């Protein structure tokens, strides 16, 4: 079968790479793709990123299945457009994508399903927001309702910061996304990314991963899209997985089914493992980035077959199995990230990095003549596995040491929380 991967980041590179290795897949296209994806798939320019544009592209390429990486096309209704045209797609309809597109929506779904999450108040005015602050100790969490590319959540340590954040969000610093706010209780615990594939009924869980959201070592500095992630089966025990599926994933899917908008695709639960058990920080309507890279690195078998079964609502018929070796992805980010980034810096060392036994997934890269240059905030995802988490970490950092570009930023402590936990 022929598959189209929609998107251009490290997550999409990992998807295209695994799909290219799938026996059931004869051809992989990516649109728009990036400089690295073109080694694993045929990149097709994206002239029109709207749902109709993607639909026209899928038709002209004659693909049998489209897999959507990022949230924006899903929230815009790409799956609705494909389904209305009788085309197979992996990703929820716009109604399901609201689980990520609106924090207020996902909180209401969680309330309806009795899903454990942080206590919260929803507000749209400054006065109500300031009043709501009295209900929470510090730190308090302020969230913009809409999509904000990872910039919509602020953990305010004190009242002054909370009020400043509220004022800025409501005044439009994030555009429409911040005109409605969720103010919620700060949860303490280990953060876990647990992503399941679902056709609306059946669930096929992937392996748990842990992201590193802030730009600096030791979880310091502003939040980013994710500076690195590792995937290790010990992150959640069997009992914890059952608890997350039973108390969080199943009831959420049940609410969406009951509302007549069943969720199909990748459901990403961002969890806090608190002293009172797992609680949901957020849902995403897609695979994680950078979680996809280490998760798919550990996946055995035919991803194309699994995704086709998902799109055809017969996910219950397929199984996946996982390599037991832990894996890790280090993100190499551009100068200035997560603020305004510089583009156009030449990158060297790809062959030497991969000779260490790692895979270098591309995110923000572009080919200019014979050079590959930076073209985004997160530039590369150096991914490796090992017999132990320590050896996976060592291999990935050895590989990353060969990669160079001006202003490169990389955290030195990806995976260290795991090392400490299991020491
Ligand atoms: P979200 O986009 O909702 O996942 O928030 C981004 C990040 O903010 C999360 O990955 C957490 O690190 C942090 N965060 C969000 N909500 C909370 C909360 N209620 N308590 C503690 N940390 C949170
Ligand atoms: N790495 C977090 C996310 O994909 O939202």
Number of strands: 25
Structural domain count: 4
- What is the helix tally? 14
**Poorly predicted parts:** none
Structural class: alpha+beta
At the first level of CATH, the class of the largest domain is Alpha Beta
First-last Cα distance: 45 Å
CATH architecture annotation name of the largest domain: 2-Layer Sandwich
**Looking at CATH, which topology of the largest domain would you report?**
D-amino Acid Aminotransferase, Chain A, domain 1
Annotation keywords:
423 residues; alpha+beta; Rossmann fold; Dna Ligase, domain 1; D-amino Acid Aminotransferase, Chain A, domain 1; five-stranded parallel sheet; five-stranded antiparallel sheet; 32% helix; binds adenosine monophosphate; binds glycine
What would you say this structure looks like, in words?
With 423 residues, this protein is an alpha+beta fold. It folds into four domains: 2-93, Rossmann fold, CATH 3.40.50; 125-179, Dna Ligase, domain 1, CATH 3.30.1490; 188-322, D-amino Acid Aminotransferase, Chain A, domain 1 (2-Layer Sandwich); 327-422, Alpha-Beta Complex (Glycinamide Ribonucleotide Synthetase, Chain A, domain 4), CATH 3.90.600.10. Helices cover 32% and strands 27% of the residues. It is built from 14 helices and 25 strands. The chain has helices spanning 10-20, 51-61, 71-75, 78-84, 94-101, 103-113, 126-133, 159-171, 238-258, 292-298, 303-311, 350-355, 389-400, 416-421; strands at 2-7, 27-32, 42-43, 65-68, 89-90, 120-123, 140-144, 153-156, 181-185, 190-198, 203-205, 209-211, 214-216, 220-223, 228-231, 265-274, 277-284, 299-300, 321-322, 327-333, 346-347, 359-362, 365-368, 371-374, 378-385. Strands 3-2-1-4-5 form a five-stranded parallel β-sheet, sandwiched between helices. It has a five-stranded antiparallel β-sheet with strand order 12-15-20-25-22. A hairpin with an 8-residue loop joins strand 7 (140-144) and strand 8. Helix 1 (10-20) runs parallel beside helix 10, helix 5 crosses helix 6 and helix 6 (103-113) packs across helix 9 (238-258). The chain is globular and about 55 Å long. The model has no long low-confidence stretch (mean pLDDT 97). Residues 118, 141, 143, 153, 155, 184-187, 191, 213, 223, 270, 281-282 line the site of adenosine monophosphate (AMP).
């Amino acid at each position: 079968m022929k598959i189209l991967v929609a998107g251009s980041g490290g997550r999409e590179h990992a998807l295209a790479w695994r799909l290219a290795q799938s026996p059931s897949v004869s051809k992989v296209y990516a649109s728009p793709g990036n400089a690295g994806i073109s080694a694993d798939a045929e990149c097709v320019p994206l002239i029109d990123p709207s749902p109709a544009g993607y639909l026209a592209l899928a038709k002209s390429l004659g693909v049998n299945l489209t897999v959507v990486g990022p949230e924006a096309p899903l929230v815009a209704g790409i799956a609705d457009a494909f389904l209305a045209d009788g085309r197979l797609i992996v990703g929820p309809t716009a109604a399901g994508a609201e689980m990520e597109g609106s924090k207020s929506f996902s909180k209401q779904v969680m309330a309806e399903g009795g899903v454990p999450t942080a206590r919260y108040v929803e507000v749209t005015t400054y006065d109500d927001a300031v009043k709501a602050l009295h209900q929470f100790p510090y730190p308090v969490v302020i969230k913009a309702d809409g999509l904000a590319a990872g910039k919509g959540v602020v953990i305010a340590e004190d009242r002054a910061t909370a009020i400043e954040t509220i004022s800025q969000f409501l005044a439009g610093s994030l555009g429409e996304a911040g005109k409605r706010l969720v103010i919620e209780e700060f949860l303490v615990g280990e953060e876990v990314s647990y992503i399941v594939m679902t056709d609306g009924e059946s669930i096929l869980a992937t392996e748990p991963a842990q992201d590193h959201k802030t730009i600096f070592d030791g979880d310091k500095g502003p939040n980013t899209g994710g500076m690195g992630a590792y995937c290790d089966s010990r992150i959640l025990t069997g009992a914890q997985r059952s608890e997350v599926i039973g108390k969080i994933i199943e009831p959420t899917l049940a609410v969406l089914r009951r509302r007549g908008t069943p969720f199909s695709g990748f459901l990403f639960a961002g969890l806090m493992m608190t002293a009172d058990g797992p609680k949901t920080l957020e849902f995403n309507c897609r695979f994680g980035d950078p979680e996809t890279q280490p998760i798919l690195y550990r996946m055995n078998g035919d991803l194309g077959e699994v995704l086709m079964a998902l799109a055809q609502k017969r996910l219950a018929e397929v199984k996946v199995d996982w390599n037991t070796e832990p894996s890790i992805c280090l993100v190499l980010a551009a100068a200035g990230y997560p603020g305004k980034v510089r583009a156009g810096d030449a990158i060297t060392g790809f062959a030497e990095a991969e000779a260490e036994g790692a895979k270098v997934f591309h995110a923000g890269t572009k080919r200019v003549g014979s050079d590959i240059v930076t073209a985004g905030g997160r530039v590369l995802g150096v991914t490796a596995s090992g017999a132990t988490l320590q050896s996976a970490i060592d291999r990935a950092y050895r590989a990353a040491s060969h990669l160079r570009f001006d202003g490169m930023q990389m955290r030195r402590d990806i995976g260290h929380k795991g090392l400490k936990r299991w020491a």
